[in-house]
Amino acid sequence: MITRFGLLRRDPVLTRDQFDAHWRHAHGPLAAQFPGLRAYNQHRVVNDAQFGIDHGRGPWQLDGFSELRFDDLHAMKSAVASPAFGAALTDERGFLGDVHLVACERHEVVPVSLGDGPFVKRMTLLKRLPGLTSEAFRHEWLTVHAQWVRQWPDVLGYVQNLVIDRWHDSREDSAPYEAVPVDGIVEFWFRDTETAARLYASDVVARTQQHARVFLDEITPFFVETRRIV
Question: Looking at domain 2-228, which of 3.30.70.100, 3.60.9.10, 1.10.10.10, 3.40.50.300 is its CATH number?
């Protein structure tokens, strides 16, 4: 399974509510028609506080994350070449100021189990340390760091999305790393922000954050509200 995330900034002439309404009611139905699409979620940013993270934040200012899942890269690229994608791309000009795109491998470290109660979700952009290879980042994050997070209590789900390709101006030609300097996207679920705050004050999280300094340059989190389109 491949996940294609869009890192979205609204057109500055639009309010947050206007952006969200267009994204949901006009753009969402267009993107839902992509051939080969297995799932489509829209994540609206509601808070960009650093929230318990003792690490440098990146420059990203986002209004939302789009999340589209395909069986593989071939299916994703076929969707981009389809007439349905052309219609959605034309519509973007009416409500987006900028969009960066990444394709990711999805790794579910703590299985998502939300139950019937409320929950909050946080999505985080990760950038590796300068000089660290993508292979070394992959090992530190998917193998070492994942073992630390598995020890955390009160986590309803933790998913690592490892970036394997990126785009900015073109939707067909890959962008250089400098144009989209993101190596991973974290998805974290908690029952509520109070539970998350207690967790981030714990020793196990402090030790996990110490390990983050071994391989991460920037950690840029956003709390989001999610709606499922497909």
Answer: 3.30.70.100
Q: Does residue 162 contact residue 184 with C-beta atoms inside 8 Å?
A: yes
Q: List pLDDT tens digits, range 84-110.
A: 999 999 999 889 999 999 999 999 999
Provide the pLDDT confidence category of residue 224 given band limits of 50, 70 and 90: very high
Report yes or no on whether pTM surpasses 0.85. Answer: yes
Percent of the chain with pLDDT over 70: 100
What's the rounded Cα separation, in Å, for the pair 102 and 182?
A: 8
Q: How far, in Å, are 3, 13, 35, 56, 123 from residue 185 at the CA level?
A: 11, 28, 25, 16, 7
pLDDT higher than threshold 90 for residue 53: no
What span, in angstroms and rounded, lies between the C-alpha atoms of 102 and 7? 8
The total of other beta-carbon atoms located within 10 Å of residue 186's CB is 19
> What Å distances lie between residue 98 and 32, 60, 130, 187, 190, CA to CA?
21, 11, 25, 22, 30
Helix residue ranges per DSSP H, the chain: 16-22, 28-31, 73-80, 83-92, 134-138, 146-149, 193-200, 203-212
Torsions phi, psi for 190 (to 5 deg): -130, 160
